[in-house]
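Please describe the entry underneath.
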Amino acid sequence: MLPFHNSYFPVAYLSLITSLLFIITLIPECVGQNFEKSRSVWVEQGLLLGKIYKLADNYVQIFRGIPYAEPPIGSLRFKRPVKRTRWHQEYAALDYGAPCLQFMEFHKHDKFAGSNMQNESEDCLFLNVFSPYDPEDESKLYPVLVWIHGGSFLAGSGDTGIDMEVVTKHFTSNGVVLITLNYRLGLLGFLNYKKNDHIEGNLGIWDLVLALEWIQTNMKQLNGDPSKVTVMGESAGAAAASVLAVSPRTKGLFHQAIMLSGSATAGWAIHRFGQPSWSITNIVAYIRCEKEFDKQTVQSLLKSSELPITSKECNMQERIPECLASSEEMNDLELVECFRNELNLSSFPFRYALATELGVSKLVVDDELIPLSGSELISQYARMPIMIGVAQHEWAHKKAQDYGLNQFKNVSIKDCNRNIRKIINEHYHTSCAKKLHNSTLELIANATFLRYIDTPENNRTLTRVVYGLQDLEADIEFVAPAQREIDGYVENGLPVYAYSFRYFPKSPIYEEDQKTFSIFGRETIKVKRKELQIRRNGRPRAFHGLDHAYIFTNGYSSNLHVEPFSKRDQQMAKMLTALITNFVKYRKPTPTEWNGFKWAPFTNESAQYAILDLPPKNAIGSLHWPATNFWNKEAALLEKLSLREKTVQTLSEELTADERLQLAAYRRAWWALWLLVGMIALVIWISVICVVVTRCHSPRAKPYNNIVVSR
């Protein structure tokens, strides 16, 4: 440490002041180079103020934090969103609105939204508009792209992973309006409960419906063409887009859909059978401590995320609502009213632990927004062109420890089977229309072992097994569902553009791990960076979410950085965004050839998809064949082996009370008959034995003198 000298202080002080003044003088100049003017427009709710910027030869107008619904708080909590009423003064849409309450940490330190994440709130239903602007024709309309963020329906917002400079370059400069938005997450957005004769839920998806209605009403004032609206989502956002594209409730609200690594046919998207994890009765059981969070898992998560433990009650709760303190029986509507008035969700540790315990916030069949689940929903209600695809190896970034495997040993058959059965039960089984018998699941698991793990050389090295498990999860959760959705649209004669994203940068990919520490009462963030190694047999593999880094940013996606962002990366970003914006504008990704590439649609007559790489090309067959054939055809045949037993069970459940008594009497008589037959057989057998024994001891029995014994 340098000693303090009076003579040193003035020099350092003057140097600091000079540097600060130099930076301050630069700031207005830098902003002034882009900022042109403010613009006010009339929307249904009143006057809206935004800003216009000039980038190169193009102008963009940006309106951020526009409220499209009434705040879902107070009496509107746990209810469908309500249309925003008029405001009486000019509304300044100059900054992002508060994100919805987060239930996971995926985007806590997001490069672009991290600071805004500190403002998370239940009052969060905002959208953001990035629109081209022509000063010579202020009424000119442009096609609209609505972006739905992913995050397991537990995390994210309209500004996560969004670089404003990049999106203006990729979208508005190409004549497309980009809209991003927030929707309610976790318990607030996907709680479900019984209401009269149906299930009520999917509030987060209802938020999206209201946002689309707002867009139809107001986009002309913001230079968007309401007759040319495309919805695009990634992961959970793609599943939401997939549902919205076929929902009877959204007819006329948009006209095309783009799904990046997600589908409504996936088991993690829509709940199929049994009690939903996010049902109110299940959550009440955790609040009342009738069920407990897994202690080891919670402690591990809390330790790794440096969360403060301040809970005074069970299950990470600071306070149990008084309306739930007693064990008095309450129906679902009474429980919802209790939640609305008393449930405090301000504690992030509780939200985090609850989400870890319950998993992805699944949608539910509610007979209105979502009338069916799975492939039936697509087959019956598909009505628009789509672009849909997956990454080459969706789960390539999962590690051995994610499967509970030792990093230094070959994997035993027992550990292989344990992981396979867990994946089959938790991921494949949940995508089935009905619950399968254990024997059927065992049969499918055995076939899966042969398909993904077993080799002629009996090679069960750690690397080989992890690759197999990664592919297994990816095929069940993303690839097979995408192909099912493709098939449903093709059956309806609709244009489908399918793809496999296979581009991988030559530059290193760095993974950031940020931790928050308290030093002398002040929070300090420590950033750890390490290079992500994602290769198979020496070749890199594109993974889940990597495409985001080439659409909305220059190489950033969910705390992963591609550095440096090379000319080759820029070329990939240019190609990918050109394909997307072309689809938005012309309903075709390649209305004309792109550097000699023409993206062919997937049809019954010509099944093919695009491989998005440099250079791009078309591939023949279904996505990642034969994986899709195994899950969508062969495994489906194995499911039918349990059909007979399920049918018998179903018929028994449909009998009347008198018929059940008759059936029970018939069964008793049947068993009595078999018991009588068994007793008669026993008597006959004993009689035969007695006759034989008596015969052997009879004095008239001749001795066997002719027996020769060898010596």
User: Anything to note?
Assistant: The chain is about 35% helix and 15% strand.
